[in-house]
């Protein structure tokens, strides 16, 4: 299915957020966003102040948006859009919406590099341990010779997809410690057995690695909780390149 896409800017440090519906029509859900957009030329708009213009973020999210292939008998029909600005999630429609964000990351080869995140949200999970609400993610690293080139000249360097199958995992982070060692930081849901959750997560990661001829990779448990970057976000994966040579990963305020 071809999903609809919304660019998202989660609130942080007391700042508000602006949600843009990319398809079929761009709509800013807050009047203040419209007022700001009207006051600034399109090429200069950078609402999150991360050094990437809003039009480029939107164009890249459109260019690299994944296509979801769903089983004919998918029990939850399609990814859902949710009523915005609420602390309690309320499904608005099962309309195939993707929520996306873009931010700059450090590069080792001199090319402008941007990380794209796409989240598809579901009203329920129908797996063996079915539960209400589910979040799945697809991410991409894209690069170009310079940040000002049009979206058509950007190329995808890497893709990442993840489906958190356990309702007992509130938050996770995978850190590449060495070329052959991954460290998993977990925040388990309230009331969950942390040791059992870790066993399940480690077993699943090892299974995936083995299936890709990477059985030599060590997966270790992190005693520390997932950590926020300097920009305030939780990165799902922190590659070795972000920890060696380049210093902290550069991120804007999305």
Structural write-up:
The chain folds into 2 domains: 1-165, no CATH class; 168-254, GMP Synthetase, Chain A, domain 3. A hairpin with a 2-residue loop joins β9 (169-178) and β10. It has 3 helices and 12 strands, in the order ββααββββββββαββ. By secondary structure, it is α/β, with parallel strands linked by helices. The strands form 3 sheets. It has a 6-stranded mixed β-sheet. A 4-stranded mixed β-sheet has the order 11-10-9-12, covered by helices on one side. Strands 3-4 form a two-stranded antiparallel sheet.
| Number of distinct helices | 3
Strand order of the largest sheet: 2-1-5-6-7-8
Report the biggest beta sheet as strand number plus sense, adding barrel if it closes: 6 strands, mixed
| pLDDT < 50 stretches | 9-40, 245-254
What gyration radius follows from the Cα positions, in whole Å?
19 Å
Helix content: 10-25%
Short description:
The protein has 3 helices and 12 strands. It has helices spanning 31-39, 54-63, 194-211, and strands spanning 4-7, 20-21, 81-82, 91-93, 97-104, 112-125, 131-144, 155-163, 169-178, 181-188, 218-221, 237-238.
């Amino acid at each position: 299915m071809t999903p609809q896409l919304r660019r998202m800017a989660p609130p942080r440090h007391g700042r508000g957020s602006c949600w843009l519906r990319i398809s079929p029509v761009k709509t800013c859900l807050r009047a203040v966003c419209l007022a700001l957009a009207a006051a600034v030329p399109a090429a200069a708009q950078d609402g999150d102040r991360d050094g990437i213009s809003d039009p480029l973020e939107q164009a890249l999210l459109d260019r690299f948006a994944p296509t979801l292939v769903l089983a004919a008998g998918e029990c939850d029909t399609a990814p859902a859009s949710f009523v915005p600005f609420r602390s309690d999630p309320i499904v608005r429609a099962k309309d195939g919406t993707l929520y996306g964000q873009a931010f700059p990351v450090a590069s080792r080869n001199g090319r402008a590099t941007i990380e794209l995140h796409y989240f598809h949200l579901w009203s329920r999970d129908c797996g063996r341990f079915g539960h209400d609400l589910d979040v799945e993610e697809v991410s991409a690293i894209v690069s170009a010779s310079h940040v000002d080139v049009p979206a058509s000249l950007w190329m995808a360097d890497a893709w990442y997809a993840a489906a958190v199958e356990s309702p007992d995992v509130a938050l996770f982070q995978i850190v590449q410690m060495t070329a052959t060692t991954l460290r998993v930081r977990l925040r388990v849901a309230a009331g969950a057995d942390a040791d059992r959750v870790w066993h399940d997560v480690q077993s699943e990661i090892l299974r995936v690695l083995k299936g890709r001829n990477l059985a030599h990779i060590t997966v270790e448990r992190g005693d520390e909780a997932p950590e926020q970057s300097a920009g305030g976000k939780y990165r799902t994966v922190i590659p070795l390149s972000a920890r060696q040579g380049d210093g902290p990963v550069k991120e804007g305020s999305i």
